[in-house]
Specification:
Elements: E1 3-12, E2 19-24, E3 27-30, E4 35-46, E5 54-63, E6 66-76, E7 82-94, E8 98-105, E9 116-122
Parallel strand pairs: 3-9
Antiparallel strand pairs: 1-2, 1-4, 4-7, 5-6, 5-8, 8-9
Length: 134
């Protein structure tokens, strides 16, 4: 894997195939927990000589020691050296504040590159709300 990133949303140009990412996620705030988050995870993979075109990796999402998501992701290089994998996660349930970690793994569980971490924090209540009163 060359890189991985996580964004709030993305778009792929239908004519050029170029990917645009919007609002990269490094840190987010939630007013209440549990909360739901929608995001796009992007991984760029390089094919080693002799590897088959069709590949399967695992996507694992953890919050601290708790596994929130663990599922295979299948993709194909389609005869090319690189393959971009986009995984949309709509309504990912986040039970509490903490470090949310996204990892691509081999079938045996070995990490492919570094994980992408998003810090999830509790947002301060808006000024003037009953929770903000002294």
């Amino acid at each position: 894997m060359i890189f991985m990133t996580c964004a709030q949303s993305s778009a792929v140009d239908s004519q050029t195939g170029r990917l645009s990412l919007f609002h990269l996620l490094e840190q987010v705030q939630a007013t209440t927990f549990p909360t739901a988050m929608s995001l796009t995870l992007v991984g760029m993979f390089v094919k080693d000589p002799g590897e088959p075109d069709d590949q399967s990796v695992r996507l694992k999402v953890e919050l601290g020691d708790a596994v929130l998501f663990d599922s295979p992701v299948n993709f194909s290089f389609r005869g090319k050296q690189r393959s971009r994998v986009l995984t949309a996660m709509n309504g990912l349930a986040i039970p509490s504040a903490g470090k949310l970690s996204f990892s691509f793994l081999t079938a045996a569980g070995a990490p492919l590159g570094s994980p992408w971490d998003v810090i999830v924090e509790k947002a301060a209540p808006p000024a003037g709300s009953p929770a903000a009163a002294p």
